[in-house]
Automatic annotation (TrEMBL):
<keyword id="KW-1003">Cell membrane</keyword>
<keyword id="KW-0441">Lipid A biosynthesis</keyword>
<dbReference type="InterPro" id="IPR000620">
    <property type="entry name" value="EamA_dom"/>
</dbReference>
<keyword id="KW-0997">Cell inner membrane</keyword>
<protein>
    <recommendedName>
        <fullName>EamA domain-containing protein</fullName>
    </recommendedName>
</protein>
<dbReference type="GO" id="GO:0009103">
    <property type="term" value="P:lipopolysaccharide biosynthetic process"/>
</dbReference>
<feature type="transmembrane region" description="Helical">
    <location>
        <begin position="104"/>
        <end position="122"/>
    </location>
</feature>
<keyword id="KW-0444">Lipid biosynthesis</keyword>
<dbReference type="InterPro" id="IPR000390">
    <property type="entry name" value="Small_drug/metabolite_transptr"/>
</dbReference>
<feature type="transmembrane region" description="Helical">
    <location>
        <begin position="78"/>
        <end position="98"/>
    </location>
</feature>
<dbReference type="GO" id="GO:0009245">
    <property type="term" value="P:lipid A biosynthetic process"/>
</dbReference>
<keyword id="KW-0812">Transmembrane</keyword>
<dbReference type="GO" id="GO:0005886">
    <property type="term" value="C:plasma membrane"/>
</dbReference>
<keyword id="KW-0443">Lipid metabolism</keyword>
<keyword id="KW-0472">Membrane</keyword>
<keyword id="KW-0448">Lipopolysaccharide biosynthesis</keyword>
<keyword id="KW-1133">Transmembrane helix</keyword>
């Protein structure tokens, strides 16, 4: 894997992770809601104009372009498993940003992900 391929993959992963975190921040700002026929439009409008959600969707849009560029340079069997890095990024940032708990079991799982990504990335 070239450095350009790695940077594109990592950028795509980070954009995807940022999108998830921003969507969560947006739903936190809006609060719990139920989609029912009588509130689809009001809730939909609140979601459509919530800045974090707009940011998250924008990260997805840019991330798709970056990901397509990465896939043009890297086999999907190598690139796709790299998305697992997003689990690590999200767990760490969510613990600080949202106060979510990262247990020892979560840390063990993150360790397995790191080993797995390394095994996929370092091919003979």
């Amino acid at each position: 894997m070239t450095i350009v391929s790695f940077v594109l993959i990592l950028t795509g992963v980070l954009l995807n992770a940022a999108a998830q975190l921003l969507l969560k921040a947006g739903t936190n700002a809006i609060g719990h809601f139920e989609f029912r026929l009588d509130n689809v439009i009001p809730v939909g409008l609140r979601l459509a104009f919530e800045p974090h959600i707009i940011g998250g969707l924008s990260c997805y849009a840019v991330g798709v372009v970056v990901w397509i560029m990465a896939l043009s340079r890297t086999p999907v069997s190598v690139a796709y498993p790299m998305l697992s890095i997003g689990y690590i990024v999200n767990a760490i940032i969510a613990s600080f940003w949202f106060g979510e708990n990262v247990s020892s079991q979560n840390l063990l799982g993150i360790g397995f992900i790191i080993v797995g990504v390394w095994l996929v990335a370092v091919r003979p």
